[in-house]
Design a protein that fits this description.
Bound molecules: 2,6-di-O-phosphono-beta-D-fructofuranose
CATH class of the largest domain: Alpha Beta
Shape: globular
Largest sheet: 8 strands, mixed
Strand order of the largest sheet: 2-1-3-4-5-6-7-8
Radius of gyration: 21 Å
Number of domains: 2
Helix content: 25-40%
Strand content: 15-25%
CATH architecture of the largest domain: 2-Layer Sandwich
CATH topology of the largest domain: Fructose-1,6-Bisphosphatase, Chain A, domain 1
Order of helices and strands: HHHEEEEHEEEEEHEHEEHEEEH
Number of helices: 8
């Protein structure tokens, strides 16, 4: 009779097995492993709801009596935004691994109630990113970030979530596209799992994603060009000049307008993603959210060998001042992010010299 040996087995590696192996290797503890499993399970439920589309009655705006429902960001909520938030909240309320949760869709963080067992982690999430793409059947996704609850804190408030991105113990996203994929880091590389819909399990399909250092592809909403700061104007201006310009090569452009999908492309084949400061969003500090979008994506990108910056500072070192704080974002292929940052630094030091 043949014995079952992992080496001889051609069986696919499930997320559960991968996390158990990480635990045995001492890179993760049981609580964090189980917390990630709960998030992954919630993502499967969201994937089912997204996949039903119009048949599930979940498309369109949330709200009633013709009144749109507006979230804390001042944006109209979609039914799927609300549903995804509820799925993540419900799944994580009773697992026993969390001390509190914060969602892009909610004004304040929520501590785990006294009636439930509490753990030592804080979970932040953007339940459905790219929601303007929901109704047109384009990829959307869930982004999440895990922090440690500070020692001695049993009922965390918003201030306990205000930790820099370097403090994240795990981060990931789930993209609901032609296939549903979970991309995860626990600080030891970035790995991709594809949902096998027949067996309902995430299967490891790319171990150690690696972003090429150089790229010829950029992602930005070009319609904002006239609102950008001078260094961004100069940077993209030079990209557009292609082979004849100072960069000496032609660049292609892609913009899905779902951050999860754009970042997934960059993790897969390289590129630079940018949502820079512009005069429309300057008062808020930027368009994208530090805690729910920029930080988790930056950890995933750095763990895949890429770089992430605000244009002036490494993203993961930004000291958060608010749960819903916004920041400019540049992330992706290391050499290209460094080039964009150089334009900002050169502009700033010239300004200081002139002043
Ligand atoms: P959305 O508002 O649709 O949720 O998080 C904000 C975000 O999407 C990102 O996913 C996306 O990259 C960006 O905004 C799209 O912005 P534009 O509408 O300016 O293109």
């Amino acid at each position: 009779m043949s014995s079952l040996s992992p080496q001889a087995s051609p069986s696919p590696v499930s997320l559960t097995r991968h996390l158990l192996e990480e635990q045995r290797a001492g890179r993760i503890n049981a609580d964090l492993r189980l917390l990630i499993e709960v998030v992954a399970r919630a993502c499967k439920s969201i994937s089912i709801a997204v996949g039903k589309g119009a048949l599930g009655g979940v498309l369109g705006d949330a709200g009633s009596d013709g009144e749109a429902s507006i979230n804390v960001q001042g944006e109209a909520q979609k039914k799927l935004d609300v549903l995804s938030n509820e799925i993540l909240m419900e799944a994580n309320a009773w697992g026993g691994h969390l001390a509190g949760l914060a969602s892009e869709e909610m004004d304040h963080s929520v501590p785990i109630s006294d009636a439930q067992p509490r753990g030592n982690y804080l979970l932040l999430f953007d339940p459905l990113d790219g929601s303007s793409n929901i109704d047109v059947n384009i990829s959307v996704g869930t982004i999440f970030s895990v922090l440690r609850c500070p020692d001695g804190v049993t009922t965390p408030g918003d201030e306990h979530f205000l930790q820099p991105g370097t403090a994240q113990v795990a981060a990931g996203y789930c993209t609901y596209g032609p296939s549903t994929m979970l991309v995860l880091t626990i600080g030891h590389g970035t790995h991709a799992f594809t949902l096998d819909r027949e067996i309902g399990s995430f299967v490891l399909t790319q171990r150690g994603m690696t972003i090429p250092e150089e790229t010829r592809e950029f992602a930005v909403n070009m319609s904002n060009q006239r609102f950008w700061e001078a260094p961004m104007q100069a940077y993209v201006g030079d990209l557009l000049q292609g082979r004849e310009g100072p960069r000496g090569k032609d660049f292609n452009m892609r913009w899905v307008a779902s951050m999860v999908a754009d970042v997934h492309r960059i993790l897969t084949r390289g590129g630079i993603f940018s949502y820079p400061l512009d005069s429309k969003c300057a008062a808020k500090g930027g368009k994208l959210r530090l805690m729910y979008e920029a930080n988790p994506m930056s950890l995933l990108v750095e763990q895949a060998g890429g770089a992430a910056s605000t244009g002036r500072q490494r993203m993961l070192e930004v000291r958060p001042t608010g749960l819903h704080q916004r920041v400019p974002v540049f992330l992706g292929s290391r050499a290209e992010v460094e080039a964009a940052v150089r334009y900002h630094h050169e502009h700033d030091s010239q300004e200081q010299g002139d002043g």
